[in-house]
Amino acid sequence: MKNNPSVLIIFYTRRGNTAKMAQAVAQGAIEEGANIKLMRIADDVPMEIIKKDETWFETHQKLEKTYPTSDEFAIIEEMSKADAIIFGSPTRFGNMSHEMKKMWDLSTDLWFTGKLIGKVGGVFTGASSVHGGQETTAVSMMFPMLHQGMIIVGPSYDTKELHESGSPYGPSTIVGPNSDQIKEVDLVVARSLGAKVTKIAAKLAD
Ligand SMILES: Cc1cc2nc3c(=O)[nH]c(=O)nc-3n(C[C@H](O)[C@H](O)[C@H](O)COP(=O)(O)O)c2cc1C
User: Fold this and answer.
1) What is the domain-level CATH number for residue 60?
2) How many whole angstroms from its chain centre is CA 73?
3) Residue 124 CA: distances (Å) to CA of 3, 46, 112, 138, 158
4) 23-46 per-position pLDDT tens digit
5) Which of 13, 103, 171, 201 could join 72 in a cystine, given CB atoms 3.0 to 4.6 angstroms apart?
6) Which residues in the chain land under pLDDT 70?
7) Domain limits at 83?
């Protein structure tokens, strides 16, 4: 049993919603005693494209201040040290973002050396429509975790809000044309994942 397991939360965001979900996951982890670290994956889109969209550029600049990005190799290095790792990505055509996939595709050394084997983790996401692929995105994020030997934890129905938000695969939110606010139930489920991963990491860590 380890009292203060280290929980690394890795996320990508374009419009900032996945960052808000990451904060809720972090809060749940902290409430269970975790030492948390949030790491944001950078946009893999040329700046001239981002600048063409005023809202995107503005959000990009704000995010750079609040959540400075780390390069993939720095994130990968932190992954090898953490007791638990939780991944968040917006839904991209029912799949994780290419920024997150790229990070995994650069993680061969972790795989060869088995550094993630036995580490506990979970996933969370967001999408712009009700059935926009939240569950498939959550599951897509699990594939590399399983290949790397991780133990996957999802939210569970002792969190009653799971009947209204997210799925047993992972917390999620709907932020799009019809709603620009993350609901409290989404945040409750996100916090529950952070808490549950931390509790299990504490039991598993040496
Ligand atoms: C290329 C692209 C693909 C997307 N695919 C989906 C999708 O399959 N389903 C959906 O509901 N929303 C989709 N969206 C909307 C995003 O999931 C939504 O804007 C995102 O979750 C917001 O998260 P963020 O604020 O962290 O960037 C897509 C957005 C982009 C840019």
Assistant:
1) 3.40.50.360
2) 17
3) 24, 26, 26, 6, 18
4) 999 999 999 999 999 999 999 999
5) 103
6) 178, 206
7) 6-204
Show the tokens assigned to 74.
């720095």
Q: What's the pLDDT score for residue 42? A: 96
Query: Given the structure tokens 């950078």, which residue do they identify?
Result: 42
Q: How far is the CA of 166 from the centre of ligand 1 (A)?
A: 16
Contacts of 105 (CB under 8 A, 6+ apart): none
User: Which residue puts its alpha carbon closest to atom 29 of ligand 1?
Assistant: 92
pTM for the model stands at: 0.97
- Residue 151 DSSP code: E
**Residue 175 Cα, ligand 1 centroid: separation in angstroms?**
8
Residue 122 placed within a domain: yes
Per-residue confidence (pLDDT) for residue 2, from 0 to 100 = 78
